Amino acid sequence: MKECPIDGVRFGASSKKAISEMRDMSKRANWLSTALAGSILSDIFVKNGPIGASYKIHTTDFELLGTAMAASTPILRRKASDLAGSMILLHSGSLNNQEKKFWRCMYNAIK
Amino acid sequence: MRSNNAVVNLGILGVAMMAGVSCANATSENQLYVEYEQKVASCIASEKQRPSLSYSDVKALPSDVFSVAVFYVKEKRIVDCSSGKELDALAEEIALSGTLSKEQLKYRYLSIGLVDRKKAFDALPEHQRIAFLNAVKGKNLETDIVAIFDQFSE
Question: From which residue to which does the signal peptide run (chain B) (predicted)?
Answer without folding.
Answer: 1-26
